[in-house]
Task: inverse folding
């Protein structure tokens, strides 16, 4: 079954994308929750027109995301946490902690846009990817230190 996404769905696609999903997922979750439409010819035409009209707005949003990535640059964020003597921390550093640390630096980034290559569970430096736009991803370093 092919559907047209009405908004971004993590792990599936972005707004106005035509994606193939299993029939049950489309009919029982995506369509009733207002996340997608069935991809028939009239809905495809409507999605193409919406995409065409939103193209210049999308270019502006992408440009803003690229400017934000350039402004962030090679930022290294330091997050303090309780740790044992072996360097293992209690729990793990979360996307919310990274988003809060970015906010204190003056960058307002949603925690849902923060992705770890490997979850920090010990002291050290870790790579974190910020998804600022569907085509703009920026990598920063997070340094986990003991408090």
Result:
């Amino acid at each position: 079954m092919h559907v047209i996404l009405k908004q971004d769905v993590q792990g599936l696609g972005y707004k106005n994308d035509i994606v193939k999903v299993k029939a049950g997922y489309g009919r029982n979750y995506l369509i009733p929750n207002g996340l997608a439409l069935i991809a028939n010819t009239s809905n495809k035409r409507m999605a193409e027109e919406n995409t065409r009209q939103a193209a210049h707005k999308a270019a502006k949003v992408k440009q803003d995301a690229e400017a934000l990535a350039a402004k962030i640059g090679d930022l290294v964020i330091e997050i303090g946490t309780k740790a044992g003597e072996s360097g293992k921390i209690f729990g793990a550093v979360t996307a919310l902690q990274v988003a809060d640390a970015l906010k204190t630096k003056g960058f307002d980034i949603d925690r849902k846009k923060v992705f770890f290559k490997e979850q920090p569970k010990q002291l050290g430096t870790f790579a974190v990817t910020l998804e600022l736009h569907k085509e703009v991803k920026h990598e920063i370093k997070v340094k986990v230190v003991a408090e």
Remarks:
- The chain has two domains: 2-59, 70-146.
- Residues 46 and 129 are 34 Å apart (CA to CA).
- The radius of gyration is 20 Å.
- Residues 2-59 form a domain with the Ribosomal Protein L9; domain 1 fold (CATH 3.40.5.10).
